[in-house]
C-alpha cells in the first residue's frame, strides 16, 4: 500500500502543520481534511 504525504493549506493543527503521512490504497479517495482537526 502506498504512503501519501499531506500538508495543511493553512495553519493546521499540531498533527498536520508540518505535514503527515497516511498509508492508503491506490483506489482510496485523497483526504480533504486532516483526520485530527476535522
Can you offer a commentary on this structure?
This protein is an all-beta fold and 38 residues long. The protein has one domain. It is 0% helix and 21% strand. It is built from no helices and two strands. It has strands spanning 3-6, 20-23. A two-stranded antiparallel sheet has the order 1-2. The protein is elongated and about 30 Å long. The termini are far apart. The model has no long low-confidence stretch (mean pLDDT 91).
Question: What keywords describe this structure?
Answer:
38 residues, mainly beta, two-stranded antiparallel ribbon, 0% helix
| Average predicted local confidence, pLDDT | 91
Tertiary shape: elongated
Query: What's the number of extended β-strand segments?
Result: 2
Q: How many domain modules?
A: 1
> Considering DSSP H and I runs of 4 or more, what fraction of the residues is helical?
under 10%
Largest sheet: 2 strands, antiparallel
Measured on Cα atoms, how large is the radius of gyration? Answer: 10 Å
Our measurement of the CA-to-CA distance between the termini, rounded to an integer number of angstroms, reads 24 Å
* Backbone structural class: mainly beta
Short description:
The protein has 38 residues and is mainly β. It has strands at residues 3-6, 20-23.
Task: List strands and helices in order, with pairings.
Elements: E1 3-6, E2 20-23
